[in-house]
Design a protein that fits this description.
Elements (H helix, E strand, L loop, with lengths): L1 E6 L9 H9 L2 E8 L1 H6 L4 H20 L4 E5 L6 H12 L3 E5 L4 H15 L5 E4 L21 H12 L59 H12 L5 H4 L12 H6 L4 H10 L10 H22 L22 H9 L5 H13 L4 H14 L4 H11 L5 H12 L14 H8 L4 H6 L27 H13 L3
Parallel strand pairs: 1-2, 1-4, 2-3, 4-5
Helix pairs in contact: 4-5, 6-11, 10-11, 11-16, 13-14, 14-16, 15-16
Bound molecules: flavin-adenine dinucleotide.
C-alpha cells in the first residue's frame, strides 16, 4: 500500500498521529506540504507565522528523509485549488490512501471535506486524525448535549473524563524501506509542479531567518521545540506563582512550536504529568496551573469547531455587534506602534513588534486597552496580532480577543476593564519589563515609571483611563 501524508500545522516527526498511522499501514510513504499564500493572507496569517512554518518544514524534511519518506512541496494560491491538485497528485503518485491531522477553522474544514469528496472518485480514502487537541472537538458535551461555552465547566468535565495519563505520545513512525520509487518531481496543472525543494520565501511573504536560522531570536523546528520543553521541565513548579510577571519570563515559550505542531500537546502533557506523579490536580500547583493553560488552548479549539461564526469574525455574543466601535486610525496606530503614553501598553506592543511574541498577561492588558479604553473594534487588534505573532492561531487569538472585548464566551461581565496602571504596578513592580522595551523611560524610578510625568521624547497618555472605562461600561450596559 502506498500512502501520502499531507502535513499542515503538525510539523514534526515524533508523536504525529497521521504520520504514525500512515507509516504503520503503508509499505511506501511520501509526505506533501501545500502552500496557499492567497488564502493565508485572507486569513491574516502574517509573515512571522508563515516563515516559522517554512523553517520548521525544512528541518522536518531532513528527519523524514532519514525515515525514507520524501517530502514534496506544492505552491498553490488558494484552498479552492487543493482538491483538484491532490486528485492529480494521487493519480500520478499512484497512492492508495491520504492521511492528515484534522484542522478546525471553517475554511480548513470545507477544504478538507472537498478533498475527501474529490478523492472518493479515485477510490482513495482520506483519513483525518485527532492530533491538535487531546480530545476530538465535540467529544465533551454539557448535560443538555451542547458544546461547552464556558471554560470552567469544560475544564471540570475534561478532567473528570481524562484525569489520568490517557495521552501518552506515540512511538516513532516506522522507517520505510527505501524511497527509490517515488519520482523526483511531477507536473501539476494549474499550479507549480510538485517538487522536493522548499523555497526560501513565498509570494507575498518575505521574512527570512537570520544567519543563525532564527526568527526574531527564536530557533524554529522540532528539535528546538523539544529543547524548550525540556528546559521548562525544570521551571514548571514555579509556574503558578510566577507566570503573571512578564519580567520574570516564567512561562514555557512553547506557543510558536505548539501552534505549527513542532511540539505536540501530548508531549507537553506527558512532561507535566511526570512532574506531578500523574495528577492533573492536587499534585503540584505549577503543573495543574500549566495544564489548565493547555486546556484553554483545547477549549478554544473545540469552540472554533463548534461555532462556525467564530471563524467568520463574528462576535460570540451577537448583541455585542451593536457596540459603536471607534474607527480612529490614529489612535490604533499609536496603540500598535507602542506610542500610547501608557508605559506597560507601549512596552508590551514593542515586545510584540520586536520578538513576535507577547506575554499572556500583557496580551490581556493591551487587548483591554484597545477594546475598552479606546473602544476600537476587537477585530482590528485580532488582525494585528495574527499578522505579527509567531504563535498566531485563529482559535486562541480569537478566543483571547473576544474574552478581552467581552464579546466572547467569558463568564466575567463586561464591566471588568483592566486598569493598565494597576496591572503595571502589580505585575511589573520595579518597572524592569518597561525599562527593557521603553528605553526612553529607563532612568525613571519604580514609582514614576508606571505613569511618568511629561517627558521629552515620550507621549502623554492618549486617553484618560478612568473616563474611558466609564464610557465603555455605559456603552456595554446600553446593549442590554
Ligand atoms: P504558557 O503560559 O507556557 O502556556 C502553555 C501553552 O498553553 C501555550 O504555549 C499555549 O499553547 C497554551 N495557552 C496558554 N494560555 C492560553 C490561552 N489563554 N488561550 C489559549 N491557549 C493558551 N495563544 C496562541 O497560541 N496563539 C495566539 O494567537 C494567541 N493570541 C492571544 C490573544 C490574546 C488577546 C490573548 C489574551 C491571549 C492569546 N493567546 C494566544 C494565549 C496566550 O497568551 C499564549 O498562548 C501564551 O502567552 C503563550 O506563551 P507560552 O507558550 O509561554 O505560554
Amino acid at each position: 500500500r502506498r500512502g501520502l501524508v499531507w502535513l499542515r500545522n503538525d510539523l514534526r516527526l515524533r508523536d504525529n498521529t497521521a504520520l504514525y498511522r500512515a507509516a504503520k499501514s503503508c509499505g511506501a510513504l511520501a509526505a506533501i506540504y501545500i502552500t496557499c499564500p492567497q488564502t493565508w493572507q485572507s486569513h491574516d496569517d502574517g509573515e512571522p507565522v508563515v516563515a516559522f512554518r517554512l523553517a520548521c518544514l525544512r528541518e522536518l524534511q531532513q528527519s523524514l528523509a532519514a525515515h525514507n519518506i520524501p517530502l514534496y512541496f506544492l505552491e498553490l494560491q488558494t484552498f479552492a485549488q487543493v482538491p483538484r491538485a491532490l486528485v492529480q497528485i494521487a493519480g500520478k503518485l499512484e497512492i492508495d490512501a491520504l492521511f492528515a491531522n484534522a484542522e478546525y477553522p471553517l475554511n480548513e474544514r470545507h477544504r478538507d471535506a472537498a478533498v475527501r469528496a474529490a478523492l472518493k472518485g479515485l477510490r482513495v480514502p482520506v483519513e483525518y486524525s485527532t492530533d491538535r487537541t487531546l480530545l476530538p472537538p465535540g467529544a465533551l458535551k454539557t448535560a443538555g448535549g451542547e458544546a461547552y461555552k464556558v471554560f470552567t465547566p469544560f475544564k471540570r468535565a475534561f478532567i473528570a473524563r481524562c484525569g489520568g495519563d490517557d495521552f501518552a505520545p506515540l512511538p516513532l513512525p516506522r522507517k520505510m524501506n527505501d524511497e527509490a520509487d517515488w519520482p523526483k518531481w511531477i507536473q501539476v496543472q494549474g499550479g507549480n509542479n510538485l517538487v522536493r525543494t522548499i523555497p526560501e520565501r513565498l509570494q507575498g511573504y518575505g521574512l527570512l531567518p537570520d544567519g543563525a536560522g532564527r526568527l526574531y531570536g527564536w530557533t524554529p523546528g522540532e528539535k528546538a521545540g523539544a529543547r524548550r520543553l525540556r528546559a521548562f521541565r525544570g521551571e514548571i513548579e514555579n509556574y503558578a506563582d510566577q507566570r503573571d510577571f512578564p519580567g520574570l519570563d516564567a512561562t514555557s515559550h512553547l506557543s510558536p512550536y505548539l501552534n505549527c505542531g513542532a511540539v505536540s500537546v501530548r508531549q507537553c502533557v506527558q512532561m507535566a504529568l511526570a512532574r506531578s506523579s500523574g495528577h492533573w490536580v492536587g499534585g503540584n500547583d505549577g503543573v495543574s496551573c500549566w495544564l489548565g493553560e493547555l486546556l484553554w488552548r483545547e477549549f478554544y479549539t473545540h469552540l472554533i469547531a463548534a461555532f462556525p461564526r467564530l471563524s467568520m469574525h463574528k462576535p460570540f455574543k451577537p448583541e455585542t455587534d451593536r457596540v459603536p466601535w471607534s474607527s480612529d486610525r490614529d489612535r490604533f496606530r499609536q496603540w500598535y506602534a507602542g506610542q500610547t503614553g501608557v508605559p506597560i501598553v507601549d512596552a508590551a506592543m514593542r515586545q510584540l513588534n520586536t520578538c513576535g511574541w507577547m506575554h499572556n498577561r500583557l496580551r490581556m492588558v493591551v487587548a483591554s486597552f484597545l477594546t475598552k479604553n479606546l473602544l476600537i473594534d476587537w477585530r482590528w487588534g485580532e488582525r494585528y496580532f495574527m499578522r505579527h505573532l509567531l504563535d498566531a492561531d485563529l482559535a486562541a487569538n480569537n478566543g483571547g480577543w473576544q474574552w478581552a472585548a467581552s464579546t466572547g464566551t467569558d463568564a466575567v461581565p463586561y464591566f471588568r476593564v483592566f486598569n493598565p496602571y494597576s496591572q503595571s504596578k502589580r505585575f511589573d513592580r520595579d518597572g524592569e519589563f518597561i525599562r527593557q522595551f521603553v528605553p526612553e523611560l529607563r532612568h525613571l524610578d519604580r514609582d514614576a515609571i508606571h505613569c511618568p510625568p511629561q517627558l521629552a521624547g515620550y507621549p502623554l497618555p492618549i486617553c484618560d483611563v478612568a473616563q474611558s472605562r466609564k464610557h465603555a461600561i455605559a456603552v456595554f450596559s446600553g446593549l442590554k
